[in-house]
Amino acid sequence: MYPMTPTHTEELLKIIQDSAETSDTLPDTTVIQKMIDKHELERDRMLEGVAYYLNQADIKKRLRYFYEDGVRKIDTEKPNNRISHSWHKLLVQQKVQYLVGKPITFNADDSKFLQLVNDFVNEDFDDCIQELLKNASNKGREWLHPFVDEEGEFDFIRIPAEEVIPVYDTTKKRKLLYAIRYYDVKNIDDEFTRKVELYTDEQIFYYVEYNGALVQDFAYENNPESHFYDKQGNGYGWGKVPMIEFKNNEEGVSDLIFYKDLIDAYNGNISNNANTFDEMQDIIFELINYSGDDLSEFMTNLRHYKAVAVGEGGGFNMKTAEIPIDSANTHLDRLEENIYRFGQGVNNNPDKVGNSPTNVAIKNLYSLLDLKANEAERKFRPALHAFFWFFTEYLKMTDQGEYDPTLLQMTFNRSRMTNELEEVQMGSQSTDISKETRLAHHPWVDDVEAELKRIKDEEEEYRNSMPPLTDIPTDTGGDEDEPE
Known about the structure:
Blueprint: H1 6-21, H2 30-53, E1 65-68, E2 71-74, H3 87-100, E3 105-107, H4 111-120, H5 123-139, E4 141-148, E5 154-159, E6 164-168, E7 176-186, E8 192-199, E9 203-210, E10 213-216, E11 225-226, E12 228-229, E13 235-236, E14 244-247, H6 260-280, E15 284-290, H7 295-305, E16 310-319, H8 325-342, H9 350-353, H10 359-365, H11 367-397, E17 409-411, H12 420-429, H13 435-440, H14 448-465
Antiparallel strand pairs: 1-2, 3-17, 4-5, 4-14, 6-7, 7-8, 8-9, 9-10, 9-11, 12-13, 15-16
């Protein structure tokens, strides 16, 4: 979050209030421009997490040098392996698929409200949630912008965190007063134009950078523009800034900062070893009493004549570099172990967990990932409730009912490896609990109600397929007369 000082907040508040009082003017953009300039540093830190996710670690920028006459120069002749490993992507994907790989389940006491929510949260919503968590893990936070489209339908779009500067209430640091979005647009000549948007609780102001200053963007018919419009063209505002922050953790930082040094060390060691292997192919000659003066002459004679002339007692030795393989492997194993530990990931190497681990062992294996997922879930829950506040406001404005978004229940269905045989055996032996409970914990059952219906249908089909029972005679006494 951009560390807004009270002075900056008061200045921004004043320019917005002044513009509200004077409808034919736009806010002074001096403070906005200063905030964007300061935000560039935080933007670079966010994009570092994205770069490592795309396997563009710092090792990719490494150069090798040599000194000539006391001057350091770039060495373009020596091997320069720059091997980057996708540790960060692996750990982020584990976290995302573990926490939101399965769709979030929503529930509510009001069946009509629940139906409206379930109709809205389609595959696009599930995909957006995964992208929000992935990017929040890379950058520390990501933003979601709810809006009403041209057809009057409620919709949303993800806004990259590196483009957003939030301005919170300095006294409580919870209420979002304004949000500034800035981004660059490339034109047909591959030139970039800086666009800036200022979101308030009622309007959106649009700017474009011209000669180093922000001026009104005349590409918009209405500027400032209302959040949305009805069919008659009347503009309305939400009453809140339509930007929702999805934080990765309390500090709002990327997962990368907790293990970046370990990844850099791993990449560096692997690359150094690769350089040494390449250099081992180049033999170093130790010359003793060589009779010539020119080293190039020595190499020419060795290559063409397989012989060189040396003085009395002279000769030459061939030397190659050696790598302490055992020490190198031990160091890399320790780095790998620490990457998983401090990255709070799951190392599912069979050498670590065995071929058939028990569920107790699996639960312990996922303990660190659970801690990391718990923190992300704790931040995503209030953000989702904030998003559904806009959704329920839309329902109210479109006469679809009034609902309380805080009553919407959310279940994050975590994806964890299990010992299925152990779970099935435990379920079959738990005869003192209901069939519904046993099915809920069965590894092959995703929808308990649907499975119960299938069981009922199969039982009904079996009963219908059975032949009808014949009448069984009850008289077994033969033809003898009954006694009087």
